User: Fold this.
Amino acid sequence: MKLLGISGTISGERTRLVVEKILQSAKEQFPEIEIELLDLQKYDIQFCDGRNPSTYTGDTKTVIDIVSSADFYIIGTPIYQASMTGALKNLFDLVPVDAFSGKVIGFAATGGTYQHYLVIENQLKPIAGFFRSFVAPNYVYVHDTHFNSSNEIIDQNVIQRINGLAHQVVFMQKSLNHK
Assistant:
């Protein structure tokens, strides 16, 4: 089983660090799973223009293939203007509708206000519902104050939530696969 972590931003590093930490925790708890990080900063992805996903080329096709081949996901985004990033929304628009269907998704977000966690509840979970995904009930929201000046997560409660989400998504996916 391959757990794909998606850092859904083309700027900054905190979201990637959170997604990496969740992936590492999942691997420590379940060494038999495969993990992979998809960092959108490393790809030159075209804007979705409504065509069939199979007709894209280059980095866009690579990213679509990476997302489509995963068994389950950790998806992270910084919250800008009370919403997910445009880069993540574009990714959701690019992938085939069935790419996430029947698969578990766990969400993580970073932001500068304590209310921005609501983006997970009000935007990301409904999108996962559209894709017919199974959404982990828990998620991780990391506020700016939870990082130190070296961008290390210093809040023990956040670290516990990271470990809990990692366990939850793997447990859920294994339960769905009856493995």
